[in-house]
Structure formats: C-alpha cells, structure tokens
Write a structure and sequence with these properties.
This protein is mostly helical. Helices cover 56% and strands 0% of the residues. The chain has helices spanning 2-10, 14-26, 30-38, 53-60, 63-71, 86-92, 96-104, 119-125, 129-137, 152-159, 162-170, 185-191, 195-203, 218-224, 228-236, 243-254, 261-269.
Length: 270
C-alpha cells in the first residue's frame, strides 16, 4: 500500500502536493504529511489564508501532524495574517502537547501577536486553564500588557473565566493593575456581573475602593447594573464609599420593586 502511495505522490505537481499536504494535516494523517514533505512539498508553503502548514496544524490542534512539521523544519517564526504565532494558535486550540513542543524548540513564551497579546493573554481569553501553568513555567510574564494595558487577569475577569483567574492569582498576578481606562480586574468583574469572580478577586486582596478614569469604583458598576448580589459582596467587604458611591447605592436600593430583608440589610451597611 505504501509503495502505491509513494508512487502516486511522486507524480504530483508541486501545487498539488501542497494542496494534499493541507488536506492531510486537516485529517491529521501524519504519515502522509511526512511522505509529502520528503517528496518535495514545501513545509512552509502558504495557503489562501496566508497560513503555513504548521499554523494550520496548531490552530486545529493536530498534534501528530504538528510534530512531523516541526521535525521536518517548519518555520516557528511565521505568523498568521492577523499576527498570531503558532504558539498563540496552539494555546487557543487548547493543544497543550503542541504548545510544549513549540516551547521545547525554543519559541518565546512571551511572543506578541495582534494588539501585543501574548500566548498567556490568549489562554485567558479562550479559557484554557491547563495552558496557564505550562506558559508560566516556561517564562511567560504573568502581568504582560496589551496595547490597551490589559493583563491576562483583566481578560479572565472580564470573560468570567474563574479557573484561569484563580491560576493567575496563585502565580501572584498583580490584582490591582489598571488598564488604559484605569479599570482594575475588579471593575471588569463587577461590570460583567460575575459574583464568583468578584469574591475571588476580593479574597486575593483586590482594592474595593479602586477608581477608574471617571472616578468610579466597582460598586458604581454593580449598582448601575442593578446587581444586588455584587453590591452585597462589595459592601460586606467594607468598601470605602465616596459621596457618589453612596448616591448610586442608595438609588439602586430605593428603586427596588419591593422592600426586602436584603434591602434593609444593605441600607444598614451603607
């Protein structure tokens, strides 16, 4: 069978060989991937999306094909049309084995992609908790910032990816760093209405009185959005309220449909 396969590929034109290479990667037929490259298929040939075979293998999480491509000399430096590296794509796919192979081959754990996002930012955005430890163990900067000054913790907090945030905090991520709008992770968690994330950040010494460029605290956002649960959590943490915080909190509580025990408790806290 293999002799027939070898003879078939021997007669193919270079363009057809490259096309066959991409199809073999999509199906993770790593044996055929190896044969095609040995028969002359360009290991770094670009497809119509300007991806190399390795970028495709990483994005699709095709571990065995990626291994063959790396062994056959695929370039680790090529990026996709939107500036994602092979490592970014492997992380997005949750392909831990591929990520390890790339790092073992010397890829920089802090390589930047679109908007200066690192692979650790990608892990936070795509909720790939297993990749967090791998990247940090290989030197990923835990508080790396994008062009908007977002850290991986900012991203995990805004997306509600609690497990990722927990791992970042275990690795001593700075919980009170601010982004371009002077928002801390706690602002983003309150703004997106995630009480579990709010509690996690507060437990990790997030400052409940932190203010953004508009002088708004996390309580502002929880109150404006009518999120009584988060308001309760923040007030229970004895947030240092300014006059504006007090007004917003009171307006929320006084406009609730009907008085309740929780409302009375909150008013007492304020």
């Amino acid at each position: 069978t293999w002799k027939l396969v070898l003879e078939y590929y021997k007669e193919m034109s270079p363009d057809r060989m490259v096309s066959a290479l991409y199809k073999a990667i999509e199906k993770d037929l790593h044996g055929i991937v190896a044969v095609l490259i040995e028969r002359g298929a360009d290991v770094n040939a670009l497809n119509e999306m300007q991806y190399t075979p390795l970028l495709v293998a990483c994005e699709m999480g095709k571990t065995e094909s990626a291994k063959v491509l790396i062994e056959k000399g695929a370039s680790l430096n090529r990026k996709s049309s939107n500036s994602n590296s092979a490592l970014h794509l492997a992380v997005q796919a949750g392909a831990a084995s591929i990520a390890k192979m790339l790092l073992n081959k010397g890829m920089d754990a802090n390589i930047v992609g679109q908007g200066n996002q690192t692979p650790l930012h990608a892990a936070a955005f795509h909720n790939k908790a297993a990749l967090v430890d791998i990247l940090i163990d290989r030197g990923a900067k835990i508080d790396a910032v994008t062009k908007d000054l977002l850290t991986p913790l900012h991203i995990a907090s805004s997306k509600g990816h609690t497990e990722v945030a927990q791992k970042l905090l275990q690795h001593k991520a700075n919980v009170n760093l601010k982004d371009k709008r002077s928002k801390a992770a706690l602002h983003l968690a309150a703004e997106t209405g995630n009480p579990t994330m709010v509690e996690l950040l507060l437990h990790s010494n997030a400052d409940p009185s932190v203010t953004d460029k508009e002088k708004k605290t996390p309580l502002h956002f929880a109150s404006i959005d009518g999120n009584l649960n988060i308001v309760t959590i923040l007030l229970a943490k004895q947030s240092k309220l300014g006059a504006k915080d007090m007004d917003v909190g009171l307006r929320l509580l006084l406009h609730l449909p009907a008085p309740s025990a929780s409302t009375t408790t909150l008013l007492k806290l304020i």
